[in-house]
Amino acid sequence: GVFGVFYYRSANPKTLSILSHFLPVPAEAITREFATGATADEICARTIRGLHALGVNRVYISNLDPADAPERLEAIERAVGR
Fold first, then answer.
1. CA-wise closest residue to 25 among 42, 35, 36, 13
2. Tens digits of residue pLDDT in 33-49
């Protein structure tokens, strides 16, 4: 199978609330991560590493801004360590 990872760009409460109407949103966890100074790329990479630890090797990332998607993907890939 393939698993999707949502790229949270921020912990904006209004945005997270709206998103929760469409998909499960771990709003408290996302907010805590951003509050520690983690970047969106780091949070996404951490999620992917967690999936890899569970044996999931095929993931896609949704919600990347098309204008900088190649740069974001490179940064995430470096952070994942693959």
1. 13
2. 999 999 999 999 999 99
